[in-house]
Inverse folding.
């Protein structure tokens, strides 16, 4: 049995702006961590730096303004074999982002802290797209790391 983290948030933006925020280096730096090397290319290896931790994900799927999928490459032990999914659905005057971090072996370990951290970062992407300023790792509003130990 596998366990998944799933969050959903409505954002006042366009599908294209949301897609850019989750696929480009500038976008990801605006809401997750400023120390990022990323490109919106299938097969790219994106790197996210947090103080003493570097996370690496391979870009597996890019459907512009609809869906993005990453698979874990260099991650904490609890994250090995997991995938990160972003599903973008336009609604009336908002866009729904359904975020999933799937494939955890157990709901123990860092699962709860990871879920909490992702929720905070989804708040950050909402802030970035609605106000122009997110709260990525290390900013005044966010003191969360990429992982919780």
């Amino acid at each position: 049995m596998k366990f998944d983290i799933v969050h959903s948030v409505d954002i006042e933006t366009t599908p294209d702006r949301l897609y850019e925020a989750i696929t480009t280096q500038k976008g990801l730096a605006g809401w997750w961590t400023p120390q990022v090397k990323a490109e919106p290319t299938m097969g790219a290896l994106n790197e996210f730096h947090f103080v003493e931790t570097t996370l690496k994900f391979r870009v597996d799927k890019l459907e512009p303004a609809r869906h993005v999928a990453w698979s874990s490459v260099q991650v904490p032990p609890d994250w090995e074999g997991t995938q990160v999914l972003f599903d973008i659905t336009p609604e009336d005057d908002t866009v729904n982002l359904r975020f999933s971090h799937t494939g955890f072996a157990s709901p123990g370990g860092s699962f709860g802290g990871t879920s909490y951290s992702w929720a905070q970062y989804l708040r950050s992407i909402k802030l970035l797209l609605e106000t122009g300023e997110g709260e990525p790792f290390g900013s005044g509003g966010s003191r969360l790391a990429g992982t919780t130990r």
Summary: Strands lie at 3-11, 36-37, 45-50, 53-63, 67-74, 83-90, 95-104. The chain has one domain: 3-131. The first strand starts at residue 3 and ends at 11. Residues 3-131 form a domain with the Alpha-D-Glucose-1,6-Bisphosphate; Chain A, domain 4 fold (CATH 3.30.530.20).
